[in-house]
Write a structure and sequence with these properties.
single chain, alpha/beta, UDP-n-acetylglucosamine1-carboxyvinyl-transferase, Chain, 2 domains, four-stranded mixed sheet, 12 helices, about 30% helix, binds shikimate-3-phosphate, transferase, cytoplasm
């Protein structure tokens, strides 16, 4: 990345990753043909798509974001031949664990080097309580094996951590359990599973932190319009906020209230962000977002915003590095078990760029300053790689990011889109 650059114009970032996964999962077990538009053609969502193809579901596409899923009904999945490989995708492994726990066949799911280090006991434990037979490798790590032919019973599960993946896993297992499955979360997390289940005609009751559903029902096929992913938009929201003269409009972005922490946090830092054209598309709120440059200031990030911005912290750390004064993050220990240890990896990278960034057990303390040129390692974490790319907008010399292969998991056209808006990115094989 050459230092400096501009951020001007209009863009639509790719489809929401969380919704893309769920559209395939629910479409596959629904009755009838589900069509999806705006599907994210990134490796993670494709891992989910390939998993269902391997279980006998006919899926057409993706072609220009359109996918057609010929649902096999709640009991129509077939045993895959061999293991299911889900690559880098924690969402695939954890949500599929719930969906597959009540099937008649055995399944083993494996992942790449990063996923193979991530905790799966958090889904194995509630599933076992429901009567599933779940095997993991040492320390609750993948591979994850589910033994078929068990009869599941509904549970009332109080989540020990704020995790939409764990909540969704339990609710999806609940579709196949006898009785009413309930989840209670310690803080609001993304509710796309609850909304989309309802879109498929499945009754889900939500009352504050509690979500519940009755097992044994059926899903009916539907059309799904996936909005642009706010987590991908976040890179450009920060890019525009830190680049003098920037004026950027991001179109058709999902602004579900459980996902808007990045907007709230940037605004609290003094960001100039206008949300307009608000509308609802398929049960999810969507808007256009205009971001102009503003001098940011450091803040203490409110802990209630942490789950609402959980994937956006790497790039928010870059915003903090460009802000005047100190930014303090607490209550974010979950960042240590993402695609990389995002607290440590970001702190190391920012320090290499001349910024004071001190990791703490559950967060970081960042002092705004001048970003210098550096070579930094993204540890094959897509969001870290893109965050370091954004940092180059304010660097005094080139920034070289290593280990960028996984950008394609969530944002395959990042380089083209960023270049089109005025960033100076060069990709070396
Ligand atoms: C996701 C939930 C979050 C998020 C991940 C996607 C989902 O994970 O970080 O990128 O689609 O449910 P956790 O549930 O581990 O917080």
């Amino acid at each position: 990345m050459q230092p400096g650059g501009q951020i001007r114009g209009k863009a639509r970032v790719p489809g929401d990753k969380s919704m893309s996964h769920r559209s395939i999962m629910l479409g596959s077990i629904a009755d009838g043909v589900t069509t999806v538009d705006g599907f994210l053609e990134g490796e993670d969502a494709l891992s989910t798509l390939n998993a269902f193809r391997a279980m006998g579901v006919e899926i057409e596409g993706p072609e220009n974001g359109r996918v057609v899923i010929h649902g096999v009904g709640r009991d129509g999945l077939k045993a895959p031949v061999g293991d299911i490989y889900v690559g880098n995708s924690g969402t695939s492994m954890r949500l599929l664990a719930g969906l597959l726990a009540g099937q008649q066949f055995d399944v083993t799911m494996t992942g790449d080097v990063s996923l193979s280090k991530r905790p799966m006991e958090r889904v194995a434990a509630p599933l076992r309580e429901m009567g599933a037979v779940v095997e993991t490798a040492e320390g609750g790590r993948p591979p994850l094996t589910l033994r078929g032919g068990q009869s599941l019973k509904a549970i009332d599960y109080v989540l020990p951590m704020a995790s939409a993946q764990v909540k969704s896993c339990v609710l999806l297992a609940g579709l196949y359990a006898e009785g009413e499955t309930r989840t209670t979360e310690p803080a609001p997390t993304r509710d796309h599973s609850e909304r989309m289940l309802r879109g498929f005609g499945y009754k889900v009751d939500v009352d504050g932190p509690v979500a519940k559903l009755q097992g044994g029902g059926r899903l009916s096929a539907v059309h799904i319009d996936v909005p642009a992913d706010i987590s991908s938009a976040a890179f450009f929201m920060v890019a525009a906020s830190i680049t003098p003269n920037a004026d950027l409009t991001l179109e058709h972005v999902g602004i579900n209230p459980t996902r808007v922490g990045v907007i709230n946090i940037l605004r609290a830092m003094g960001g100039d962000i206008t949300v307009f054209n608000e509308r609802e598309v398929g049960g999810e709120p969507v808007a256009d977002i205009r971001i102009c440059y503003a001098q940011l200031k450091g803040i203490n990030i409110p802990e209630d915003q942490v789950p609402l911005a959980i994937d956006e912290f790497p790039v928010l750390f870059v915003a903090a590095a460009c802000a005047e004064g100190q930014t303090v993050l607490t209550g974010a220990e979950e960042l240590r078990v993402k695609e990389s240890d995002r607290i440590q990896v970001m702190a190391d990278g920012l320090q290499a760029m001349g910024i004071s960034a001190e990791p703490t057990v559950d967060g970081v303390v960042i002092q705004g300053g001048q970003i210098t040129g550096a070579t930094v390692d993204s540890h094959h974490d897509h969001r870290i790689a893109m965050s370091f790319a954004v940092a180059s907008l304010r660097a005094t010399a080139p920034i070289k990011v290593t280990g960028c292969d996984n950008v394609a998991t969530s944002f395959p056209n990042f380089v083209a889109l960023a270049s089109g808006l005025g960033m100076n990115i060069e990709v070396q094989a």
